[in-house]
Amino acid sequence: MKERRPDELETLWKEKDVVNGKLSDAMVVIMRTNGCVWAKNCGGCTMCGYRTASLHDVTEDDLMKQVDQMLSRYKGESFVKLYTSGSFLDENEIPMTVRERIFDEFSSCDRILFESRPEFIEKDVLSTLPKSTTIALGLESSDPEVMEVSIRKGFTPNDAKRAGELAKDAGLMVRSYLLLKPLYMQERVAIDSAIDSARFADPFSDEISINPVNVQKGTVVERIWKRGDYRPPWIWSLIEVFKELSGTINSRLMSSPSGGGSQRGVHNCGECDQRALEAIERFSFTQDVNDLNVTCECRDSWQKYMLSESMLGTAADLDRGFSSDLMIRK
Fold first, then answer.
1. Are 207 and 254 in contact (CB under 8 A)?
2. In the chain, % of residues over pLDDT 70
3. Dist. CA 208–CA 188, nearest whole Å
4. Which residue, 222, 233, 227, 323, is CA-closest to 277?
5. pLDDT tens-digit map of 3-54
6. Contact 220, 182 (CB under 8 A)
7. Which helix (H) or strand (E) holds 301?
8. What are residue 14's DSSP bridge partners?
9. Radius of gyration over alpha carbons of the chain, in Å?
C-alpha cells in the first residue's frame, strides 16, 4: 500500500455542477488535514468514515504543498469544491494563511465551496470570505432527536439554521446536506423525514443535497448493517423525496449518491439501479420532475417492503438472508 503523505492531497477529480444556473466544469479536491474536531474529541457521527482521510500533525507547509498540487491540476474550472475531513473554517485544520492563499489563487472562480460545522461560522469569519463562497452545512435532519441519537452530530438543527442565516445575511450561498435514512429509521419514515428536513432548510439554503446513507468502513452504521439491522435506502425512496418536494421549495434539489447501486449504498433490485441513478443525476441538473420517470417491477417490492416494515415495527433489513449475512461478515 502506498504511504499516505501529509503533503499530498487525498484525491482530486473533475465533474459537472451548476454555476449561475448553467452546467459548468468543476474541480473537486479532498485535502488531508488534522481531521474533524468532533471526530477526534467525541468519536464523530455514526455514518462518517472520513476520518480515514485525516492524518496527525499535518503542518501548514504540508497544506501549502497540497495547494500547489491543486494548482498544477487546475484548468480554469469555474467551480472549485474543497473538502477536508471536517471544517474548512476550523483553523486547526486549515490555518488562516492557507485559507487566504486558497482564496487568492482561486479568486477568478465563479464559485468556491467548502464545508464547515456551525460552531465555526460567525459574522467576523464570514466577513473575510469572498462573495463567490458557498458554505456547505451538514444539517442532516430537522429532527433534534434524530440528530442526537441516530446521527450523533454534535449540534442541533437550530445551530445549522443560525449558521445558514448568518451566511445568507453575509451575501453567501448555502448548500444544505440532508441524510436519507439515518440509523433506526424505517423507509417510509425516512422519506417523510427528509421531506420535512428540506422544508426546514429551504429558507436559509440555495441548494439542498439529499445524501442517501453509504455504509462506510469503521462506522457505527457499518457495525449495525453487518448484523442485518440496517438496510441503506432504496433509490425509489430518493426519487420519491424529489417528486414530493419538486416545485414546492425554492432551493435547487440535488443528489450525487456515494456507493449508489452497491449493497453498501442506495440501491434497488440491481436491474434498474443504473437507470434510476442516471435519472437522479439528470434531475439534479435540470430540476425537471419528468426526468425522474423510471419504471421497474421492483417498485412494487419497495412498496411491499415499506408496508412490511410498518406491520412488523422494525427497521431491520427484511430482505437480508442468512447466506448473504455470512458473506458480508467475511
1. yes
2. 95
3. 20
4. 233
5. 789 999 999 999 999 999 999 999 999 999 999 999 988 989 999 987 666 6
6. no
7. helix 298-312
8. 27
9. 20
